[in-house]
Write a structure and sequence with these properties.
Elements (H helix, E strand, L loop, with lengths): L5 H23 L3 E2 L11 E2 L1 H6 L1 E2 L10 H4 L7 H22 L1 H26 L6 E2 L3 H14 L4 E3 L6 E3 H15 L7 H21 L4
Antiparallel strand pairs: 1-2, 3-4, 5-6
Length: 214
């Protein structure tokens, strides 16, 4: 049975509440025109939650800086939120127990916001990974995965499918490869996932250099 720590429990609750709110908003409230974001008024619409909390491309008229924070609490479907929250529930409590509530919260937010910034940088300056908008906690979750792999590289994690134990240091590469194979078309923000990993790596490395209770 999973034992959720305070921050992990709160994060899961917030994500579930926002997911349910988005579903209700799409069912009982008028749709919001997002076509104008791309210079095509009336060409598309979405529920209130996704229309305002998603991270829109900086080239569009709908981008707002606050979306770098809000996008990680919005998800595109049940399977999207289910696997993100399941990963958080499995690995998050171990890191939160080890680091403490404050440091874990900082780590999660830095990885999530950093993932969004990284994706924008790749799109703006390198012309790769173009996206219209982005949702989901995946960047933060990949950061959790990377942090877990760095802190407890030899800890074995029991996979669900197939039901075999895998060391954390290998799990990072396995999930990264699976993520790309499941959607090589670019509909998934692969660079945002990579951004979460990159920010996690540098943050954990910096904390290790500080010594003490990193």
């Amino acid at each position: 049975m999973l034992r959720l720590t305070p921050v992990v429990r709160s994060l899961i609750m917030i994500n579930v509440i926002v997911f349910v709110a988005a579903f209700l908003a799409g069912s009982i409230m008028p749709q919001v025109d997002i076509g104008y974001c791309f210079g095509m008024p009336g060409a598309g619409s979405d529920d209130l939650i996704h229309a305002y909390l998603s991270l829109f491309n900086v080239k569009t008229d709908c981008f707002k800086p606050y979306q770098l924070f809000t996008y990680m609490f919005v998800h595109g479907g049940f399977m999207h939120i289910f696997f993100n929250m399941l990963s958080l529930a499995f690995m998050g409590p171990i890191l939160e127990t080890y680091w403490g509530t404050k440091r874990f919260t900082i780590f999660y937010l830095v990885c999530g916001i950093g993932a969004g910034i990284f994706n924008i940088f790749i799109d703006q300056f390198l012309g790769l990974g173009s996206f219209s908008r982005m949702v989901g906690a995946s960047g933060a979750i990949y950061g959790i995965l990377m942090g877990f792999g760095m802190m407890f590289p030899n800890m074995e994690v029991q996979l669900l499918i197939p039901p075999i134990p895998v060391k954390a240091k290998y799990l990072v590469f396995i999930l990264g490869a699976l993520n790309y194979m499941m959607d090589p078309s670019g509909n998934t923000a692969h660079f945002a996932h990579l951004g979460g990993v990159v920010f996690a790596y540098f943050l954990v490395t910096a904390w290790k250099r500080e010594g003490g209770n990193y």
